[in-house]
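Lecture 7, part B: from sequences to assemblies.

Below are the input chains for today's worked example.
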Amino acid sequence: MLSVVVLISTLLFLFVQVPQGAGLLLEVLRYASENVDKSLEQELRVIIEVSSLASRSSTINSADLAGLAKHVCAARCNTTFNQTMANSKDSFERFWSLTEDPGLAIATRRSVLACIILHWILQKERKFDDHAEKDLENITRWFYNVHLHSVAQRGLLEYLHISKSGGTSFSEAAALNDCSMAPGIGQVEELGDLPRWINGTAFEEVTGGIDIMWSYYSTKGRPSEGQTCTRRRAYLKEFGYNYVSNEFTLHGGSSERNTHVCPQMVNVVTLRDPDTRLASHLHYMLARVKKRLLGKNGKVDEGNFFDIFCAGNVTVWERLAPTAIDNYNVRSFIGERGFHMPVGGIGPEDVEIARRLLLQFDLVLDLDAGSETVDLAIQQGLGWNLSMLDLHVRSSSWALSKLNYSKEDCPNDELLRTLRNRQNPDRALYSTGRTLALLDGVFLGVARALGLRPVVLATMEVAAGVLVPRDETGCGLMRPAAVEGARRGDAATARGGGGKASRSSAK
Ligand SMILES: *[C@@H]1O[C@H](CO)[C@@H](O)[C@H](O)[C@H]1NC(C)=O
Ligand SMILES: *[C@@H]1O[C@H](CO)[C@@H](O)[C@H](O)[C@H]1NC(C)=O
Ligand SMILES: *[C@@H]1O[C@H](CO)[C@@H](O)[C@H](O)[C@H]1NC(C)=O
Ligand SMILES: *[C@@H]1O[C@H](CO)[C@@H](O)[C@H](O)[C@H]1NC(C)=O
Ligand SMILES: *[C@@H]1O[C@H](CO)[C@@H](O)[C@H](O)[C@H]1NC(C)=O
Ligand SMILES: *[C@@H]1O[C@H](CO)[C@@H](O)[C@H](O)[C@H]1NC(C)=O
Ligand SMILES: *[C@@H]1O[C@H](CO)[C@@H](O)[C@H](O)[C@H]1NC(C)=O
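Predicted structure of the full complex, as structure tokens:
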């Protein structure tokens, strides 16, 4: 999968370097074709399949949309690239109503881009003419305008914070962009969104009665405020929030089948290589535990801490932190019941469900693709004016040393080896996630290369006289002014992307 990283960074380079209209897409696709590996091809196929399933289960135009995805993809092996593009374009002209349904628009965007890239990498003779290039430009323009409007209209970002995957930095970025959010990292305890790492009862048993933070594990459900999307949104709006961070799992408790993202929110997630995430999580918990046990109220002496926690006893960890050490990524997607499945309980069916839900996220960010890629997503995708390099991202070793812990305290190599062998579901999900991040990067990168900017939306609304006071900025596309503009703006704005349509319709 390394080649995907290389691909992304080269794509970004091209987006920055190649002037608009100078065969940009040809360059991008040529590069992609020379650098992909088999896993990318497989992942693209999975994304196409799952997206068309997702659109089939939706209510609006479901049959038509499934037909569209099939149509576009069927053409991939035996028609020209030119033809594939023309087919996609024709189909879109009949599907403007997608604007009304964010989920459908996201599934369509992903499956169409996946088809185009797949088609390109499978072609034997790589021809590409000006028509195809213009078509792809038009398609991207359309997707981007739908994205901007749909994000502005929802105006409330729900970030899925998978522990130890860059969530603190992401929330810090939100705060620096003046997002309105709960203090700290934007988590709302009343909604039941705090992480559930440690089984407090088991911890007390092991330590002879000492309690610990993050021991919400035994608190399975969410309080009633957090139980439905409507109630969540109402609760957050009461405080005027437009950003919330959820470090538990997606919504829906009783069975994985009814687990869902909230369609009223803009859904964003950051992913990271599962092995590194796991090691980081384990050491962070150890640091916290050490601090607690050796602190003022701790009754355990240093020797006991090492005996209990640093002996690499996998049984101890299975009891104390059953979710954190066992496919925590997948658990973060599959809802309350799935989240609490016993160690070893996560299998391929859960990966399927997690994948289906991941595909509905507006943006998927891959931390391992590098800070430029993450920057592209937050700037071009959310309208936040900042680079991750501006953040005072605290290295994990800084955090650990502040807790008077060093990784050498508990080497745990053997334990980590054992645990890594069990994280195949997380790896499968991450592989899809990286590919989605690649597709989102292509989409946003082409939009940027075409000169489309999130701020254009605001500018259009200033001209239309519907913008609320100029100083009411903040949180990029989620700010109240953007919501106001999007509500009053006509669908024509989304279609044409031109200021003209917006001005006349707002009169
Ligand atoms: C592609 O070829 C197959 C058989 O080789 C055929 O059944 C199918 O209809 C063709 N698809 C298109 C879009 O022409
Ligand atoms: C590509 O498609 C366009 C129509 O979209 C057509 O006018 C053009 O001739 C096609 N080019 C080739 C090489 O087939
Ligand atoms: C792309 O969109 C523009 C403006 O909407 C239109 O004039 C042009 O014909 C479109 N190009 C293609 C190839 O469809
Ligand atoms: C937490 O640990 C206790 C004691 O080991 C155990 O009885 C209980 O079932 C665990 N809780 C859950 C939700 O697994
Ligand atoms: C691991 O810990 C469990 C109980 O916490 C204990 O029963 C078991 O003997 C330990 N295993 C080893 C290899 O020390
Ligand atoms: C973004 O930030 C830079 C420097 O932090 C500033 O110069 C620029 O004007 C900002 N752009 C917008 C659109 O706010
Ligand atoms: C830090 O940890 C070391 C060894 O684990 C211990 O000896 C020392 O007392 C601790 N320092 C503080 C300030 O807690």
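Note for the exam: The chain has two domains: 4-154+448-497, 157-435. Keep this in mind when comparing with the next example.
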